[in-house]
Design brief:
The protein has one helix and three strands; from the N terminus they run H-E-E-E. The chain has one helix at about 15-30; strands spanning about 35-40, 45-55, 60-65.
Length: about 70
Amino acid sequence: MNKQLEVPPPLLIEEQMQQINFTLIEAVHTNKQVCLTYYKNGQCITETGLIQFVDSWGICLFLSMKYSN
């Protein structure tokens, strides 16, 4: 990847992390579609889908990318 296109990793404040946690919990319990953006290798990547599972440590979540037309 071109180094000029890389973005710095985002920094979240405590309130943002709490809001993300609340949104994830709500999405799991209501089976709502979510739009997740994550940082990887100097890029912000966005995926949309349903959260299928969150591990007990809260480290990993599994997103099912089901699209309806």
